[in-house]
Amino acid sequence: MKALLVCSGGMSSAICAKALQDAATANGQDIQVTECGTQAFEEEVKKGYEIALVAPQIRHRFSTLESLAKAAGVPIILIKPQGYTPLGGKILLQQVNEELKK
What we know:
The chain is of the alpha/beta class and 102 residues long. Helix content is 43%, strand content 19%.
């Protein structure tokens, strides 16, 4: 699965992406997470992702990002604050699986 994780500048998401990948591996799932900032999102979301994940600190931009994701045919979710931590990989993986019905 290809997931796109967007945060303000594209840097704070690296820890969250690693936690998600570790949780997926432990659960027998294969996931590739790419991180980007809000400025790169419009073009990046068009590159064949199965889901877009929005960091909690930019929830105020969610509706804008959601319209861009929908235009690209990509489901999008706002990450729960508990899932956006080094230990939140399981929480985020559950949120992704629920959205994609896996």
